[in-house]
């Protein structure tokens, strides 16, 4: 989440009104209902994990063992098995 200077987006009247309640502090303004983004969508984490999972399944399909994959990706063998099972069902 980046910061935007209030002066560049809000009228002076609104800034003055907000300053009556919170002066010089950071203020989080949530998104409108229905416009929220799911976890990992904004910074690409979701996409990166999906690509990693597909890669794990591909390597497993080519004969790489669960334990080798666990060491390579720094995951538990249980996590690798979960990923393989999930990818099989897609």
TrEMBL record:
InterPro entries with a match to the protein in the record: c-mor_Regulatory_Protein, Homeodomain-like_sf, Mor_transcription_activator, YraL-like
N-terminal signal peptide: none
Pfam families hit by this protein: Mor (PF08765)
Domain of life: Bacteria
Domain Mor transcription activator: 44-86
Protein name in UniProt: Mor family transcriptional regulator
Species name: Clostridium punense
Lineage, uppermost ranks: Bacteria, Bacillati, Bacillota, Clostridia, Eubacteriales
